[in-house]
Amino acid sequence: MEKNARWKERFQSYCKALLQLETALQQKHFSVLEKDGVIKRFEFTFELAWKTLQDKFYHQGYIDIKGPKPVIKQAFHDGIIIDGQGWIDMLTDRNNSTHLYDETASLHIFDKIQITYYKLLKELQLNLEE
């Protein structure tokens, strides 16, 4: 597959996942199960976000930038993302939601998805569309 096509294909998947997350967040009231579903959609969307960036960087010739933290740092350096610390926090919360289960932590992550993380993910989509 051509390098350019790979990142664009991944970006299309990212946009679809982000739309699913947005749809889930449009409710007014959430059951515990629905909150867990939002967190799962967030995890999937975040994974596609950094992997889309990694593919884009590879297309641009950055062949040694691999993994979420180096990708986030490069995206911040290149101005693709504005809030580098917000993205690092998002990575930390994604790792915590995937590898641990703590109800209080899950509620905290759910709140951050609603208040901060969705906006950061949407901002990335808009920046990559330009």
Task: Walk me through the structure.
The chain is mainly alpha-helical and 130 residues long. It has a single domain (3-129), classed as Nucleotidyltransferases  domain 2 (Four Helix Bundle (Hemerythrin (Met), subunit A)). It has 5 helices and no strands. Helix 1 packs antiparallel against helix 2 (32-59) and helix 4 (84-99) packs across helix 5 (103-129). The longest helix has 28 residues, at 32-59. The protein is globular and about 45 Å long. The two termini are 23 Å apart. The mean pLDDT is 93.
| Low-pLDDT regions | none
- At the first level of CATH, what is the class? Mainly Alpha
Tally of individual helices:
5
Class from helix and strand fractions: mainly alpha
Please give the CATH architecture: Up-down Bundle
The biggest beta sheet is recorded as:
none
Residue fraction in strands? under 5%
Number of domains: 1
Mean pLDDT: 93
- Helix fraction, binned, reads over 70%
CATH structural fold name: Four Helix Bundle (Hemerythrin (Met), subunit A)
Distance between the termini: 23 Å
Number of β-strand runs: 0
Query: Helix-strand pattern, N to C?
Result: HHHHH
Structural shape: globular
Name of the CATH homologous superfamily: Nucleotidyltransferases  domain 2
